[in-house]
Structure formats: C-alpha cells, structure tokens
Amino acid sequence: MNGHADALTAIYPLLSGLSPAARALIEKEGRMMEVPAGTHLFDEYQPCGGFPFVLEGQVKVAKSSANGRELPLYRVHAGETCVISSACLLGHIEYNAHAVAETPARLLVLPTALFDRLLSEPAFRTFVFSLFAERVAELMQLVEAIAFQRLDQRLASLLLGHGQTLHTTHQQLADELGSVREIVSRLLKSFAEQGLVALGRNQIDILDPAGLRALAAEGR
C-alpha cells in the first residue's frame, strides 16, 4: 500500500510525520521515474510539471545564456530538493533554469495539484520551506562568489576538497565556473607555474593545497 510513501520517508525523514491520508495520496498519485544519465528533466520556460524528490542519483540544475554558456546553480542528491521547482510551483511560474540527470536517477514526482494539497499538511509545509531556505542560502553564496571573487579565486576553491588528484577537463571546470575553457586553461597554466598544481591529460594534481586555500581566501 505505502510503497511510494515508504520510499519517500526513508530518504526524506523530515516527512515521517505525514498523516495517513497524505501518505495514501502520495501512494495513489505520485509518479515514480527511473531515468538514464543525460536525461533532461525540465527546461527553461516550460510550465512546472510537478515536484521531484530524488531517491537515487544526482541532478544538476543550471542556467544557460543566449550564447550557450552554462552556469551550474546547484546539484540535487538523494534527500535534497530543487528550489527552482519549489519556486515555480509556489509562484505558478515557468521554470527559469534547466535540470539534467548527471547519473542514472530514480525520482518520485508529485503532480502540481497534489503538491498544492499537501501544503496544508504541517509536516510537508515545514519540509518544503526549510529546505527552500537552505537552497536560497546556497544560491546567495554562489551570487556572492560570482560578484565579489576573482575567477582565479573561484577556480582555486573549486580545485580543493576532491583529493590530491582531479580527473577532469578544462572545459568541465569552465562549465562549473560559468566561464570559457581558454581563460580557465590560462589560469591553470599560471597555477602550474606557481607550483600549486601539475597538469596532465584530463588530470590535475594538487601540489600545494595550502597555497590554493590562501588564494581562494584572498579578499574575504
């Protein structure tokens, strides 16, 4: 009876306080989706089709410019929510970003009408707004970094926290920073000349993490 609801509360324990009636609605109207990596889950200017819960996998939410450049806004992992979807449903507006499954993913999608009904449930309403606030705080940090940090500081920060060796391309780093490959390549070459990193084919070795941390923290 409660397969969908049990799967949901196992990953999202904040929803364990849902009433039996709400659980029954989720079981009846919730839509389980399994998608391969690379699947576009929604695009800009589309009407919002429902509220997605990520049960497995990872989803990237990003904003694109007219010239095709992309700025990742955040990633949604299992147990997290998509603030863009929340905002669209609460404001009855179209998506203003797009989402792509970066890995194979399993999602439970609540139709718009069900989302609206569940907002009368205290447990669901508290869940939506508490995680909404967390995501907004993350987006404010991104805005602050873009507005007030130099690109070399943001790149230094991006390189940290992934171990001694990163298996990535200059283009992937540029995409993460909302920049272009040529600029990122020049900065990485400068980092290598300073002894901060060593560059290989689709690989970056961190030689001086303390130096990168100092660079990332400049001006803060």
Mind explaining what this structure looks like?
With 220 residues, the chain is an alpha+beta fold. It folds into 2 domains: 3-146, Sandwich (Jelly Rolls), CATH 2.60.120; 149-217, Orthogonal Bundle (Arc Repressor Mutant, subunit A). Helices cover 46% and strands 22% of the residues. It has 9 helices and 10 strands. The strands form 3 sheets. It has a 4-stranded antiparallel sheet with strand order 2-6-4-5, sandwiched between helices. Strand 9 (197-200) and strand 10 (203-206) form a beta hairpin. Helix 6 runs antiparallel to helix 9 (209-217). The mean pLDDT is 89.
Tell me the overall shape: elongated
Number of helices: 9
CATH architecture descriptor of the largest domain: Sandwich
The H-and-E topology, N to C, reads as HHEEEEEHEEHHHEHHEEH
Q: Give the tally of β-strands.
A: 10
Question: So, the CATH homologous superfamily of the largest domain?
Answer: Jelly Rolls
If you consult CATH, what is the topology of the largest domain? Jelly Rolls
Integer tally of domains: 2
CATH C-level class of the largest domain is: Mainly Beta
Helix percent band: 40-55%
- Largest sheet, order of strands side by side? 2-6-4-5
Indicate the radius of gyration in whole angstroms. Answer: 20 Å
What is the straight-line distance between the termini? 53 Å
Domain Cyclic nucleotide-binding: 14-119
GO cellular component, one term: cytosol
Protein name: Bacterial regulatory protein, Crp
Domain HTH crp-type: 149-210
